[in-house]
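pasting FAD/NAD(P)-binding domain-containing protein for the record, 586 residues
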Amino acid sequence: MALLMQTPLAYVASLIALIVVATVYLGKWYRNKQIAETTVLNELDGLGKTRVGGNRIEGTVVIAGGSIAGLLTAKVCSNHFSRVLIVEPEAWLSTTAGTVDDTYSTKQGDGKKPNPRTRVQQYISLHNYHVLTLLGLNQMFPSFEAEARKIDPDAIVSADVKFHFNGRPMKAPLGFYKANLPKLLSVARPSYETLLRKFVRKECDNVEFVVGTVTGINLDASHQAVGHGRRVQSVNIRSKDGVETTEPVLLVVDCTGPTMAGLKWINATDKPLQIPKDVYDPKMHYTTCEFEVDPTIMEKVEFPGGYINARAFYVGLPDSRIERRTMLMFRRENHTLQISCGGWDVTDRPRSVDDIRTFLKQIKGAEPIPAYIFQILDALEDNGCDASATFHDDRCRKNILPMLHVIVNRSFWGVAPCYFVKYHEVVDKLPANLISLGDSVMRLNPVRGQGCTKAMVGAATLSGLLHQFQPVFDAHTGTRILPHDFAKKFYKSQFKRIESLWIETKADDYGWDTTVPVEGETLKEGAFLRWYVRNFVNLTTKNEYAATVLFNSSMFIAPASDVIGPKIALMVAWAGLQEYLSSYNT
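structre below
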């Protein structure tokens, strides 16, 4: 009798065990699938590798734009193609100054630093980089960290950026990483771009720099595969002297950023293609304040670990329900301190330490700005650092507005609108050998510092695809060409890896009533996501497990889907319920 009773129990226990094992297995399978599809972690190893056999594909790649995205793309393409041209309109980048960047260090007669990158608005603005960027750079250039440390011994540091939400500090995942957080690059944007250009010039013997502009593409009218657009046969390049030349190409890459030259090229053909794009304006304004600082004046600052040992002092994002101001503070190379003050439709334009202090005192949050931040400001003021300070306002680029068809009033002191060019929706009509990446496809609110990392994601996606495919023989031309579905596969893959950035950033920006939404949308869009993220980020200020999940996903070293995993979702639901009960009782 006892045996008969135990048998059903054994079956139940076995079934439960089977369900648990299957759940664990499916969970691992799903996460690995997310890593493969929505991150470039699996592509990192191939960034520094040449093609199998070491033979490059005969043909020319033309890259329009020689900024971060263009340089990363050039390195990737140099591993696979016999010849790579970077076409960049700013002539000084092709001189010695392009690899030394003395221009940035030289002040004008009024004591202000110029912006030598006339086509890169945010060149001298405060930049922050994610862990993924350094992981990719180390794969591309094994000596990158050593060279970066020649700029500053602290150029490579622990990835604790002192993130605060609504005034509360997020816990650093020290337990998960056994007190040894991953590292990230910590230099000003000019130093990063200059160092990257130096590496490309030194280590990529098949990369050429051309001063000029890609003005258009020429399609092969007689050659089109079924279900695919026509192929780009050549591009037109105008030199700095106005001389027009035609360059036959195997691949064309648009890395022109907000110029979005690829859209112009496609629309200028005999069969223009309407490519859908979403545009919204968060009316983001911010000023980068930069000070020359003798570290000895900061000896009395009570920052944990000491001022001289810190790189990041504060990264603050507000709760949209109560505040619209944001502040970031980083120490950079050459004894400089950068402070970014801005926000959503703010009017403040700091021009002194006292202006910054006034700005910070107005910020509302669950906790006040730490006292050591004001101690730093006091030290700057007491030692006359205002005299050598520079202040750079990020302003809207006039030429972008007509192109984006945005007909709303906005200040010329704001950041250009956010946009998402949806190439992935028309891949069957696009040329098979024309792709766009970085800001040429998507521009996000810069407060999250995702621009440079997005460029790395695009370059790594391209690298992975190039390692997978083999060129095909084309009987029409008698040459080897890229497969007809090359651009299609690239855009589909890139979309899966950047889509979440657009969705989350847009939902967050819609939390401010001054944001001008995408046409056809309202600011109510993304309300649930805002609620979820707010409660999730609140958790990270108290719970290290939640902080670890946020850290890894926000640093691009884990899939974004981790933040909606079962455990985190339950924690967020409980936190949201507690918030609701607290507000109800109040």
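The first strand starts at residue 57 and ends at 64.
The longest helix spans residues 2-38.
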